């Protein structure tokens, strides 16, 4: 997230009466003019939840107008992780999608793909194969920020590393692929992280970036 988009999110959260936010996130941005993300998928390794608290761990996409975030959120408020997809928080106002409870040590795949009329999110629990799919009317948005985030409210990073594997990010509108090979932006240099196995393939003006592993290890 750029500063403006982070500021917008914080303002939204203050309106909702939520305070004490600590952010850690990595961000990829397209390098070509008119280049936007049309797919974001991968596998999230689920960490152990220490206790009930406002832990939000998520991959997500943010648009050029910084109006919100389209995300797959691992939510720790109940004391058991719940994973679900949705758009936060307005413009447009959309119902949150479906999801499922999931335990630490499990994995979940996430897939967010732009179609002709909607973006489609699919989540699959690794241990059972349970799958939920939701559609979101977000095709008018141009997404230019792909984010791996840890968002904490009056909590500390006490759950170990957050790891994503087999990540695919697709961008269209330009043949520029340097964004895939470039180290992602580390907000405020707040997190220790590693990225491995990033490779790009180009077909016309579609760039497919595959990343073997993105790991947010801990606070820097």
Structure description:
With 220 residues, the chain is mainly beta. Helices cover 8% and strands 54% of the residues. The protein has 2 helices and 14 strands; from the N terminus they run αβββββββββββαβββ. The chain has helices at residues 3-15, 178-181, and strands spanning 21-28, 36-45, 54-63, 68-75, 82-89, 99-101, 107-114, 119-125, 131-136, 143-153, 162-172, 185-186, 191-203, 206-219. The strands form 2 sheets. A 7-stranded antiparallel beta sheet has the order 6-5-4-3-10-1-12, covered by helices on one side. The protein is globular and about 50 Å long.
Choose one word for the global shape.
Answer: globular
CA-CA gap between termini: 18 Å
How do the helices and strands follow one another from N- to C-terminus?
HEEEEEEEEEEEHEEE
Helix percent band: under 10%
With strands numbered from the N-terminus, the spatial order across the biggest sheet is: 6-5-4-3-10-1-12
- Mean pLDDT, as a whole number? 92
Low-confidence stretches: 1-18
Q: Quickly count the helices.
A: 2
* Radius of gyration based on Cα positions: 16 Å
Structural class of the helices, strands and pairings? mainly beta
Number of strands: 14
The biggest sheet, with number of strands, parallel, antiparallel or mixed sense and barrel status, is: 7 strands, antiparallel
Estimate the strand proportion: over 45%
